[in-house]
Design brief:
CATH architecture of the largest domain: Beta Barrel
Helix content: under 10%
Order of helices and strands: EEEEHEEEEEE
Distance between the termini: 28 Å
Radius of gyration: 23 Å
Structural class: mainly beta
Number of domains: 2
Length: 201
């Protein structure tokens, strides 16, 4: 989910430059995670754990859940392993700098969008979700506080009046450096369907 405001500067009949401020909320889920309470829990290096979460042993061997379900684990006090999802919630304040070039100039306009965004991290949390319950785990220590995206998309604008129009803009945003070197193999991207009302002064 993303929302915000933006302003545009009209260079000529075809070209506009625009910027603004958006709030962006993302989440990533890693499914088939096995976990169990344990006083000797193995922690994941990429997570800064909450105080209580350090006693949850998390692993990626959920495919062995049936084997563990009928076996007492002395280390975890007889608890069995459960299967769930590790969900990471991430929030950013986004400041885009983009150019739009009008390809079709009629009652319904079509423009291409290109540019970059700067993302400032403002939310970072990780939780385990299983059997309808959510257990906070901590936050990621591999996220950069400031990161960048490249943006490409299309914009369809419909003129209601001379000054007022509605817009729909499907846009692809590819994150360049969301994660630090330890997690550099993960290059997330997202496709947004941005819509809104614009007023031309």
């Amino acid at each position: 989910m993303s929302y915000g405001v933006q302003v545009s500067y009209v260079v000529n009949d075809k070209l506009q430059l625009r910027t603004g401020v958006h709030n962006v909320n993302l989440s990533y889920a890693t499914n088939d995670i096995a976990f169990t309470p344990s006083i000797r829990a193995t922690t994941l290096r990429s997570i800064d754990y909450d105080d209580n979460a350090v006693f949850i042993d998390i692993s990626n061997n959920a495919n062995q859940n049936e084997e563990f379900a009928e076996t007492d684990d002395l280390q975890s006090g007889g608890s069995t392993k459960s299967v769930g999802a590790l969900v990471q919630s991430v929030g950013y304040i986004e400041i885009p700098i983009e150019a739009t070039y009008k390809v079709i100039d009629k009652k319904v306009d079509l423009s291409v969008i290109g540019g970059v965004s700067t993302l400032f991290l403002n939310d970072n949390s990780i939780a385990l979700e299983a059997n309808g319950t959510t257990t906070p785990v901590g936050d990621s220590n591999s996220l950069n506080d400031v990161s960048f995206t490249t943006n490409v998309g299309l914009a369809v604008d419909y003129d209601i009046t001379k000054h007022l129009k509605v817009s729909v803009a499907p846009t692809l945003k590819y994150q360049l450096n969301a994660y630090k070197d330890a997690a550099s193999d993960f290059r997330p991207y997202y496709v947004g369907l941005y819509s809104g009302i614009s007023y031309r002064f």
